[in-house]
Design goal:
The chain is mostly helical and about 120 residues long. Helix content is about 55%, strand content about 10%. The protein is built from 5 helices and 4 strands. The strands form 2 sheets. The chain has a two-stranded antiparallel sheet. It has a two-stranded antiparallel ribbon with strand order 3-4.
């Protein structure tokens, strides 16, 4: 559980936090993340990078690649939930991650860490 205090931030292993420092009602971070995945985030663009057509697209390409890797890091913890509770969503998210990994491997990125997330 994460609790805000005037002296800083203290952490524990729970995925819920109180909705405010004085609330006894828990706030489920994982449910919020799932809602964002399902209703707010538009993740399909991660399957292929979009960048302006200029001579040196390497600058734009590397930042798009970094974003894609960060989304995998951010959202991989949802795969086990979806695998158990929503097979269609699991296949969709797993497919996006697989596409990212395959694309970045072709560009010689070391993707072993990310492949482990898919197991």
């Amino acid at each position: 559980m994460i609790r805000w205090k005037s002296s800083g931030l203290s952490c524990a292993t729970s995925s819920t936090i109180p909705s405010d420092p004085y609330s006894t009602k828990p706030y489920d971070n994982m449910a919020v993340k799932r809602r964002n995945i399902e209703q707010r985030y538009r993740l399909e663009y991660l399957r292929m990078p979009f960048h302006p057509k200029i001579k040196d697209t390497q600058l734009f390409s590397s930042s798009a690649d970094g974003y894609a890797m960060n989304y995998i890091r951010l959202l991989h913890d949802q795969l086990p939930y979806y695998k158990k509770h929503n097979r269609e969503r699991y296949q969709w998210l797993h497919g996006i991650f697989t596409d990212i990994i395959e694309r970045l491997e072709k560009e010689n990125y070391d993707m072993d860490e990310f492949k482990a997330y898919l197991k």
